[in-house]
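hiii, so i know i said id send this last week but things got crazy w the move. better late than never?? heres the sequnce for the chain we talked about at the cafe, plus the structure i predicted for it. fair warning i was half asleep when i ran it
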Amino acid sequence: MTTYSNILLPVDGSENSKQAMHNALGIVNAMKSKVVLLYVTGVIPGFITGQPKQEAVQSQMEEADQILIPYREFLKEHKVDFNEVIMPGFNAGEKICVVAREQECDLIVMGSRGLGDWAGMMLGSVTHRVLSHCDIPVLVTR
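okay and structure toks below
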């Protein structure tokens, strides 16, 4: 039987990512896994510098903190061993794959926006990007 010891849970505050968290809990409990909670912020353009850049970074961190609150509370309430990563990125799908490698994750559990195959490929959805670029198993939930 395959076991998963380190699960990446990328979140965005959507209902689908909250559902992914609930689904991940079953795996975590069954396999005594750890969780890496990931939130990808936007990228601040390079032409923004100095105080405006510092303010933009601070704003992004505040937004990330607010989005992560319910996930942190849920994981703590269920006594899940987790750490979190907040990372800027232009392409969230690529950043998810990078973090999965860096954190030595062996499973990604993530929500789907519910787009069909064609719409997802044409829009370049995060889920499609992860499925096509990561080399570890991905559980997509709805």
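btw Confidence is low (pLDDT under 50) at residues 119-123. thought thatd interest u
miss u guys!!
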